[in-house]
Each structure stands twice: as C-alpha cells, then as structure tokens.
Amino acid sequence: MAKLQVAIDLLNIDDAIALATKVAPYIDIIELGTPLIKSEGLTGIRKMKDAFPDKLVLADFKTADAGELEANMAFGAGADYITVLGATGDSTIAGAVKAAKEHGKGVVVDTIGVKDRVKRAQEAIALGAEFVELHAGLDEQAEDGYSIQVLIDEATRAGVAVSIAGGVNLSSITAVKKSGVTVAVAGAAIYGAKDPANAAKELQELAMA
Ligand SMILES: O=C([C@H](O)CO)[C@H](O)[C@H](O)COP(=O)(O)O
C-alpha cells in the first residue's frame, strides 16, 4: 500500500485550498508545488496547514543551498516535509535533516536532474532523508520519448524508501504501487481532472489495492 500525495501546481493559495478541500478525504500528503511556493511564499504554507491541521503538508522548496535555514523556514511555517535537491551537496541535505530533527519533521530529497537517481537515493537516505522522490519534472515529462517506466524500474531497484513523481495517473498508478514506493505523487492527474475528487478517490483505491 502506498500513500497518495497531491502535488498542487496552481499559483493561488485560495484555489489550492479549494482543490485540497475537494480531495483531502483521499489524500495523505498535500504538496504545495514549487510554483505555488514561489507565488505565495511562507504565508501560503501557513494558510494550508491552518486549513488542514490533520494532514501532512509538504513544501516543495527544491532547496539548493542553505539547507538548515530553508528547512527552518518551511517547518516554522507549518510544513511537515521540505524537499531538498539531490543534485546539491551532502552538506545541504545534512543541514535540512538537522532542522527536521529539531522540529520533529522530515526531509524529502528530490532527484530531479540527477543522472544516477538510485545511487543518490541511497546516499540521501544515509544522510537522514525520510524518503527520496524519484522525479521527472514537468519539462522532462514533455521531452520526446519520456516514460514513467524508467522511474518505476528505479523504484524497484532502489531498496530504500522512495516516492515517484512525473506522470502518475490512473494508467500508471498500479505499476507505481507494485514497484514498492512509499508514496505516489500525482499532480496534473488530480488538479487537471474534470472531477478532482473522483480522480483522487480512484487513485487512492488503486494505490491501496
Ligand atoms: O514537482 C513537480 C514539478 O517540479 C513542478 O513543481 C510536479 O508537481 C511533479 O512533477 C508532479 O508531476 P505530475 O503528476 O505529472 O503533474
């Protein structure tokens, strides 16, 4: 059974909270996507956590430097998780992990742009990350020939706690879940659906099957 995370790549916090309200019954983790964080800042995180105190809130900072400082900012605003780039140095991940331990929260390392995602995932877990996101971002997904299968194969081999993000939808979620992921991340498949609540419900059913 995999947890389900909704990645909200909207730009307005009121729209994001309205979406989260529809899908929250089927979701374990509410992610404020990087564009939303850049648009609404720490205030957006505070508003989301205030609206959903019983849900895990993930701030998709994609931190590249000053790991401890940025993690303290995110956790101070109410986030339960922050993302840190796997492409950055070990000291940045270690700094964020230090802040996470002080707050009783978690660091998720995002492998976007990393060549050897499996190796970096194993290193990141050794540094104290709670889980690692095997991630093909929106631009990589738009490249010719992209297939989520590469992430599914990597999750099967990783041997550490991972999530998959980058094209998780109703067609791929069963294979994603079978790969043994801790968390399946779905963005456009939920916020772009005609009926986001129903999309989240169907994804959750398949993630739990
Ligand atoms: O993290 C993401 C991206 O970098 C923009 O913030 C997306 O939320 C993530 O890639 C989810 O992708 P889809 O499920 O394919 O929308």
Automatic annotation (TrEMBL):
UniProtKB keywords: Carbohydrate metabolism, Lyase
Record bears the keyword Lyase: yes
SMART domains: OMPdecase
Catalytic activity from the UniProt record: D-ribulose 5-phosphate + formaldehyde = D-arabino-hex-3-ulose 6-phosphate
TM region positions: none
InterPro entries named among the record's database cross-references: 3-hexulose-6-phosphate_synth, Aldolase_TIM, HPS/KGPDC, OMPdeCOase_dom, RibuloseP-bd_barrel
Domain (Orotidine 5'-phosphate decarboxylase) ranges: 3-203
One Gene Ontology biological process: 'de novo' pyrimidine nucleobase biosynthetic process
EC number annotated for this UniProt entry: 4.1.2.43
Enzyme class: lyase
A single GO molecular function term of this UniProt record: 3-dehydro-L-gulonate-6-phosphate decarboxylase activity
Pathway: One-carbon metabolism; formaldehyde assimilation via RuMP pathway; D-fructose 6-phosphate from D-ribulose 5-phosphate and formaldehyde: step 1/2
Lyase recorded as keyword: yes
Membership in a protein family: Belongs to the HPS/KGPDC family. HPS subfamily.
The protein's name: 3-hexulose-6-phosphate synthase
Originating organism: Maribacter ulvicola
